[in-house]
Amino acid sequence: MLEILNSALQVYKLKPIKEYQTEQESDERKPCIVFFSEEDRVSLLWATSKILPECAFIVTEPTWVRVEQEGNKSVLYLLEGIGMNEFGQCFHTKFTTPKKITFICNFYTEESYKFDAPILQERAKKFQFYETLADCPMSSGIELEEYTDDKLHTRLLAAARDVNVPQTMAFGFSLERYSHHPINSKVKLIPLSKNISDDEIRDYLTAFPPYRFVIKPSNLMGSMLCTIESKDNLDRAVENFKKCLDSLQDNDCLLVDEFIDSSINDNCNLGARLRVLVTRRPNNIVETSGIICNLGYLDKPISGATSKSFSIDYLCNVLQLTNDQKNQLLDKIKRLGEAVLKSIIDYETQHLTHVPPNKQTDFIGLDVFVKQHGGQLEPFLIEVNSHNCEGNLQVYEVQHSPNRTDILDKWVETMLYRSYHYMLKGKNILIIGGGDYSKRSDFEFAQQVGLNIILIDGNPNHFAVSYSSQFFNIDINFSTKDLKNALAIVEVVRKHGIPVDGVITFCEAYVPLSTLVASFLEKPANDYLSASIAQSKFLTYKQSLSYNQDNLAYEDLVKSDFVEVFALKDVTDIPPHYYPLVIQSDSGACASGVKVIQTEEELRAKFEDYKTSLQTLTPQGDSVGVNSEIIVTPYFEGSQHDITLIISDGELLAGYVTDKGLNTPDISRETTAIMPSSVDKELQENLVQSAWNACHKINLKDGVFQVEAIHTLLGVKILKIHPHISASDVDEWLFNVWDVNLILYKYLIAFGIKPFINKSSLPRL
Description:
five-stranded mixed β-sheet, CARNS1
C-alpha cells in the first residue's frame, strides 16, 4: 500500500512515510478531517497540513473507522490514518482512544469505482455506507454528486444564469428530472428511443447548426467515448453516436455539442482547456480559487490524459494578451466559475431538500474553453466536475514545481469552518448575564449550531431565556461582590450536576465575574485580576508602567504607548500646559460622557457635573457607574481606530482594523466607522501589533477583544482595552467583509479550542 504513497511523496520531493508513529491520544480540541480515498491524494493532505498540521488523515481501509451509536445518531470515529505534519512528513498514526471525525470527503464512491477491480468496488461500498451513517459535515455526497456530475443538469443551470455554453442537443430516455429548469434556446432536450434509426440520427445531426460538433455520453464514460465530428463525415458521426448510445443507462443522456475552437494561435494544432476550481466559502459566498491550463492537440478531445498542464499566465503569454486584456479575461473566467457554483447551491437549497443537511457542494472543477466571440476572448463552460476534480491540480503541481499552490487553501478553510461548527454541537455553555437585545445574534448562533445554553440572569423575563436549555434566576447586580456572585453560580451548577464545558459572557460588566466562575469550574479563561484591570482605563495605564526593568527583551516585547491617565481629585492638580484635555468616567465605554476640555473653568464645571452623575446613575452596559473614578487624559489629534483582536492561549490569531470617523465637536464620539480600513498595510500592522502588546501587557490571553487607539504624529497611542467585544455591528461586518465569524470564535475559545484564522486573507470589499 505505502509504495503508491511514497511514489507520490517522491515527486513532491517529500520524505517517505514513517511507519506506525507512537500511538497517540486523541485531542478533542482539534478538528479531524478525513479523506476516504486511495493513498496518493497528497495535494489535498499537504494543503490541509500546511494550514493545520496533523488534523487531516487519508483513510484507505474501512477498518480504520468505527461507528458508534450516540442517542439517535451515528458518530464516526477514526482509529488510524495517514497524517502529515507542517513539513510534509507523513505518518501512519494509530489512536489509543478513537478520535471523533469532524469532516469527511468521500472519494471512494461506488459510482467512481464501478469499472475498477472487485476489491476496490467492495471497499467503495463500505465507505459509501459510512457516508450514509455520518452526522458530521461532508463535502458533497452521493446524493449531490448525482446532480453535480450530470453534465446536462449543470449546463442547464449555467445557461439559465447567462453563462456561455455550447449549443447543445441533449438526448435522453427520461427527461422528467430536468423539469425544474427553464427552457433555454442554447440547450434543446430531445426524447430518445433505444430503437432510434441511423436515418433519424443523421437527420438530427444534419439539422444541428454547427458544422463541427462533439458527441459524448453524460456519464463517467464521457472522456473515453467523446469524439469530435464534422458534417464532412456523417457516417462516422452516426456510428459514434450509436456507441455512446450503447453506454447509456436509463438516467443518462447523450450530448451533441457545438465544437468550441480553443486553438491558441493559427500556426499550430494546439488547443487549451482550462480547469477552473471554485470554492464555497462561509455564508455561501463563492470564490474562484484557481485556474489551470491544459494544452493538447485539437484533433482529439483535450483531457488530463491527452494534455500537459501549464499556468494561466503561460496561456495569456502565448495568446500575446496585454495586461488589460489578461485581467479582463481572468475576470470573465472567475465570474463564470462563481455563477456556476451559485446556481448549484441555489438548486440544492430549493429542490434537493431530501439530501441530509450535513452534505453540501463545497468545491467544483469546471472545464472551460476560451474562444474569439464577438471580437473578444470569451470563456465557454463545457462541463462541471465534483470535488474529485482536485486530482488534476496534483498533476499540475507535480509537473511544474515541487512546491504546492494555494488553490486548495480556501476549500480547506471551509472544511475547518464547518468542522468547528460540528465541534460545538452538544456542548454546554454557561452564559453569565443575557445582555441587551443587540446580543440576540450570539444566542441565535448557539441555537443554530446545537449548543446547550445554561443562562444566569436576574431577570426571568429576559429574551435570552427562550434560547436556554436551563435558566437560573440569580441576582448578579453590579453592587454585589464578584466573589459572592461567583460562589452562588458555582453552587447552583454543582447542586444540579450540570456538566459545563465553557463559560462566557456578552456583558462587559460581567467579564471579571465570568472569569472567576470559569476558574472555579476549571474552564479556560483569563485570570480575574487581568479582566478587572482591563475594565479600568486608569488601572490599565498603571499596569502598563509596571514592566520588568531587569528584562529588556521583555520590555521590548510588550512595549505599547498608552495614553497617560490621571485620576481627577482636584481641578487645581492639572497644570496649565496640560490643556486641552479629555475628561471621562474611568469605566465608561463607547465614548459615553467623554468631553474635550479647553480651560480650567470649563473643567471645574464639568467635574461638578460628573460628581453629581456618579452619585445618581446606576451602571448599565456602557453608562457611567457609581463605583467609577473621574479621569482626565491628554487630547491627541490623529486618526482614531478600533482594533478587533482574536487571541487564544496568548497567541494572536488575527487582528482587524476599523477606521473611526470624525469626532463630533467638543465630544470625543465618532460619527462613522469604516471597514475594511483605508489606511496603508504598514499602519494597520502597527495598530494590530500595538493593540496585541497592550493586551499582552495586562495578561489577557484568551478571547475576542476590542482596543481603541489613535494614530498620532508620535505614533500609536492606546486609549482603551475592552476585555470583551460584543458589538453586533462588528460581528456582522467582519463576517461579511473578511469571512470571520467572531461569534463562532468567542465560543470556541471559551471551550479551549484554538481556531485557525487566515491572517493573510483579503477583504471582499
